[in-house]
Design a protein that fits this description.
By secondary structure, this protein is an alpha+beta fold. The protein has 24 helices and 24 strands. The strands form five sheets. Strands 3-2-1-6-5-4 form a six-stranded antiparallel β-sheet, sandwiched between helices. It has a six-stranded antiparallel β-sheet with strand order 9-8-7-12-11-10, sandwiched between helices. A hairpin with a 2-residue loop joins strand 7 (322-329) and strand 8 (332-340). The chain is elongated and about 200 Å long.
């Protein structure tokens, strides 16, 4: 209701009240007069007026009563009007003050909106809002406080708040009883504004009440400050008037705080966006570095150059101040290369140090190399493990460090060390990228190691092939001509010469066995030796092995005994050729390391109850036996345990090879020995199914080969022998001389051999694989490409006994592959068979 309308209405009400009071007084007087006068007829004339003072006094009293009441009514009405007017004016003044106060805070809110729009600095934003509330809103004080764990720290204040909090340097501890009872703690807990109309009466703490009294702080409003939807602090406003914060003003302050929360969220969004942009730029640079590294790994074969370039790329592109790579060589850490400005970090470290060296500080690198995982420190200077380098790190501004292990195969081969100037530099994204870089480097190291191993294997295979060829070629002459003399000149030689010839032949076979053992060991180590396990009949294999060992045992006066096997133990799962090789080796050792008149006993039995599906072959001798120390070194290649001084032939690799062959066949070899009693070697193999075995291969030719086979009919036909070695040509020519109907044509190089093959069309071609003008594979390719010679039977005849060489010859078209030295009986039998097959075809 308007103020003028309220005043007019008050005057009218007062006048009406006075009139009513006057009428009431007049009515009362008339009533009294009527009561005092007797009743009379209307027709009668009134009596004459009375004489004397009594009637006059009654009338005067009435008049004075009426006048007094009237004056009282007027006075009451006038007083009511005055009071209403004064009250209305007071209310008008208070309303004007409130309106002015709201106007000022509306202005503060407007300026707050402008401040929020232009200000991006959080501290200046808090300070500006506090100043606006004091300067524009005319509050006596204003402050912004932020929660930090269990503490509340003031970050901005204005007005009397500066003096109010002047001696409060420490944040408010909310975990204490006093702190938990404060109004700010209540606002933080409840998340709602708290308004105190009389702060002095509501404040329980004498210290704060005295301070409020001194600063004339009479009313307070504390509002929750939100950020990201969570209460993170308080915004408090104080006034020097009681009941200063009415509902409209509190609502206005809430809008101001909401705007402030919006501004904080906006700042956070902008900070996050800018950080994301910076992170994206850095990650983009990092990805570019990885791309460069990937291309570098693909083309760079020099490991040192690769590592050096990777360190430079990390420093130039990835934003780090130092990068380095170390290698782990055994138990030694070797610094390969480094790049960046923090080179002083390395000056106190040796270029090579042992991983377990206690004199070397406990580095992050040690942990990464030992544990095989990345080690990250985003506050490097606080790391106690780098106290030795803290001064250099601080001088170069190194605040973060990371070490990523490099793997080669399944082992830790080194580490990539990276240092950054920014604290907290190694976040999840950077760590993921650096781990990818370490993975690429590990792949490069692994690839290099694999290439080096392959190159070494190729070099080793080539060396072994050359050694095999160079050794077998002269052995072919030694064994060939000794066999030839034994078969054709026995009647012309004395017994002493025949014995000498036999020594030559046996020495040649011994040397050939050594070559074969070395080749087998090398192939096993390189994973090139393959075995084909099948169900093998044991009786023929044992018989062949014993028969081939008997000449050696007879020479040494050792008796070989074979026990009758129990029924049911007929077969074992093994490679028949390799199992025969194992049996011959074990029996030969038992004979060689026995004593004159000693015994070698071979027995066959079923496996123990724990492994009934096994076959156990035991070879026990009554020889010298071995000590525990000798047993510990038994399977070391080329270690003969001191027996090399006893005049016993041996290479020292036979038993090591034998155990490896057993493992390739899923078997095991164990040795039990006692000095002076003898040695027992036990072979364990998976048992094979009964009657499910394959035919055992024929025994290989050797010193104990059968040289008295029943004569077979002499073959006929044309044989072309392509060979550049004159000794080999002469040997084959003399061997074939016993067959008069066989014509042998010789060619000393590949080209002449091709011409003769085309013109003669021989029944059989014997082809050496290493010719002066072309390889044997080239000759085979040319023969298969020519329609005239395509169907010729070609047998590769070579001193190269490597399996891959034999496979390559067969793949090129050879029908067979025979190795030198030649075992005459086997060679002649195979030639006869090939010629008979050619005539039938």
């Amino acid at each position: 209701m308007p103020a003028m309308l309220r005043a007019s209405l008050a005057v009218r009400l007062s006048s009406l009240l006075a009139t009513l009071l006057s009428l009431l007084g007049l009515a009362a007087a008339l009533a009294l007069q009527q009561v005092n006068e007797p009743s009379r007829p209307l027709a009668e004339t009134p009596p004459p007026p009375a004489t004397g003072n009594a009637p006059l006094r009654g009338t005067a009293t009435t008049v004075w009563a009426i006048g007094g009441l009237t004056l009282l009514a007027v006075a009451v009405g006038v007083l009511g009007v005055v009071l209403l007017v004064r009250r209305d004016r007071a209310e008008q003044a208070q309303a004007a003050v409130r309106t002015q106060r709201l106007d000022r805070f509306y202005l503060a809110l407007s300026r707050t909106s402008q401040l929020i729009t232009r200000e991006r600095d959080e501290a200046r934003l808090f300070a500006g809002i506090c100043e606006l509330c004091v300067d524009t809103g005319h509050a006596s004080r204003a402050a912004v406080s932020l929660r930090e764990g269990h503490r509340l720290r003031r970050v901005a204040r204005a007005g009397q708040a500066v003096a109010f909090f002047s001696d409060e340097g420490a944040p408010l501890d909310l975990s204490t009883a006093e702190g938990a009872q404060t109004l700010s703690a209540r606002v933080l807990r409840e998340g709602h504004p708290v308004v105190v109309a009389d702060y002095l009466a509501a404040q329980p703490s004498p210290r704060w009440r005295e301070r409020a009294l001194a600063q004339n702080l009479l009313s307070v409003a504390i509002l929750p400050l939100r950020r990201g939807g969570n209460v993170v602090g308080t915004f408090s406003v104080g006034a020097s008037e009681r009941d200063f914060f009415d509902a409209p003003l509190v609502q206005l302050l809430e809008e101001m705080v909401e705007d402030l929360a919006f501004a904080l969220d906006n700042i956070d969004r902008q900070v996050a966006e800018e950080a994301a942009k910076r992170q994206a730029a850095r990650l983009s640079a990092f990805l570019a570095a990885l791309s460069q590294t990937g291309r570098l790994i693909a083309r760079e074969r020099d490991e040192h150059k690769l590592f050096d370039a990777v360190c430079r790329i990390c420093v130039d592109t990835a934003g780090v101040v130092q990068a380095a790579i170390v290698r782990l060589e055994g138990d030694e850490v070797v610094r390969i290369t480094s790049a960046g400005s923090a080179s002083d970090l390395w000056r106190r470290m040796p270029a090579r140090w042992r991983l377990d060296d206690p004199a070397v500080p406990p580095l992050l690198t040690k942990q990464a190399l030992r544990e095989g995982r990345a080690v990250i420190s985003n506050d490097y200077l606080s790391e106690p493990r780098i106290a030795w380098a803290a001064a250099a790190a601080q001088r170069h501004g190194v605040h973060s460090a990371a070490v990523f292990p490099l793997h080669c195969g399944n082992r830790v081969a080194g580490a990539l060390q990276v240092f950054a100037a920014e604290r907290g530099f190694f976040d999840d994204d950077r760590v993921a990228l650096l781990q990818e870089l370490a993975g690429d480097l590990s792949l490069a190291m692994d690839q290099k190691a694999r290439l080096e191993a392959e190159a070494a294997n190729r070099a080793k295979s080539e060396f072994l092939a050359r050694m095999s060829h160079e050794l077998r070629t002269p052995l072919n002459a030694v064994l060939g001509f000794s066999q030839l003399l034994q078969s054709e000149a026995a009647d012309r030689l004395s017994p002493m010469h025949m014995a000498q010839l036999e020594h030559i032949r046996r020495a040649g076979w011994h040397l050939l066995a050594l070559v074969n053992d070395v080749l087998d060991v090398s192939r096993i180590e390189s994973g090139q030796l393959r075995v084909e396990s099948q169900s093998v009949p044991l009786a023929p294999l044992i018989e062949d092995a014993v028969r081939m060992t008997e000449p050696l045992a007879a020479t040494l006066a050792v008796n070989l005994q074979v026990e009758t096997p129990p029924p049911g133990l007929d077969t074992a799962l093994a490679d028949p050729l390799r199992l025969r090789q194992v049996l011959i080796n074990v029996l030969s050792n038992a004979a060689k390391y026995n004593r004159p008149g000693g015994v070698v006993r071979l027995s066959l039995r079923q496996g123990e109850p724990a492994a009934p599906a096994q076959v156990l072959i035991s070879v026990a001798d009554s020889g010298l036996g071995m000590t525990r120390e000798q047993l510990a070194h038994l399977f070391e290649p080329f270690n003969r345990l001191g027996r090399e001084r006893g005049g016993i032939e041996g290479t020292g690799i036979g038993l090591a090879l034998t155990r490896q062959l057993m493992r390739l066949m899923d078997g095991e070899l164990t040795v039990d020995s006692e000095v002076g009693t003898g040695t027992t070697v036990t072979l364990r193999l998976p048992a094979g199914p009964a009657n499910g075995f394959a035919t055992a291969p024929p025994p290989p030719a050797g010193p104990g080969g059968d040289t008295a086979a029943e004569p077979a009919p002499a073959p006929s036909g044309l044989v072309l022998y392509i060979e550049d070695n004159a000794v080999n040509l002469l040997l084959v020519e003399q061997l074939f001389s016993r067959w008069p109907e066989l014509r042998l044509v010789l060619a000393e190089n590949g080209q002449s051999g091709l011409e003769l093959a085309r013109s003669l069309g021989p029944d059989l071609v014997l082809l050496d694989m290493q010719l002066p003008d072309m390889s044997g594979l080239d000759v085979l390719a040319a023969l298969r490409a020519d329609p005239v010679t395509r169907s010729l039977a070609v047998v590769a005849l070579s001193a190269d006994a490597m399996p891959e060489s034999a496979a390559a010859a067969r793949a090129a078209g050879a029908v067979d592959y025979w190795t030198k030295p030649l075992a005459f009986d086997r060679f002649l039998a195979d030639v006869r068979e090939r010629l008979m097959h050619a005539h039938i075809a």
